[in-house]
Amino acid sequence: MDQSQFRLVIPSQTRYLNLVTGLAKRASLVAGLDDATAAKVSIAVDEAVTNVIIHAYGGEGEHSVELELRFTAEALEIHIWHSGRGIRGDQMVLPDPKEYIKHPRKGGLGLLLMSRFMDEVQFKADEVSGRNECCLIKKIS
Asked: One Pfam family of this protein, by short name (predicted)?
């Protein structure tokens, strides 16, 4: 199988989000996705990395977030690793959009957007290394 990949490591600071989202959008276009889909992938990556910075690291900027983009014939995979507090797949509770509209609040839509914009969203923990992973997959149609 033909596969190429590359990695980027950024500090856990929101000022680097534009770099990450721009990269995600360009990678999506390189993978063969259309512009609208590339924009959605970019939003999903923004939400995932923002969640790592704010929730996993509690806003502490001296940690790192590692991204790996993998291009295959079938999909674009974006793996995001961190060593902060993790979320497990069985802990992922998506808000009901209708309830959210009735009772709006700041935040809370990141997981919903990620799950709607990507074909797969997976959360894993590596007990040996102590790192957590969020994997976002967008299939190439």
From this structure: HATPase_c_2
